[in-house]
Design a protein that fits this description.
mainly alpha, three-stranded antiparallel β-sheet
Length: about 110
Amino acid sequence: AMNCEKYVEEKVAMIKKRRDAAARALEKYLRAEFYLPDGSLYMFPKIGPDGSNFDSEKFALQLLDKEKVSVTPGTSFGSWFRHYVRITLLQDEERIAEGIERMARVL
């Protein structure tokens, strides 16, 4: 029989490791502002500076075209979030860090 509690604990630990890897990469490559989630498969970093004309939709398209990395533009959640993108924590730590490093190349 499968031990559900152990399975859940392992998955939570895995997502926290991925979240922490994303946080380190966001700080290192982008110096982005972000909230460190306690229980989410997503992070929502602010990568465009206040007062700028940063366009998260344009950035997401350029990132996909130039670096083959997919993010969700913050404007998908409202115009207020035009300086943000949503990233997922579904890949392993190395791929997450690599994706964020590629984001920095496009910025």
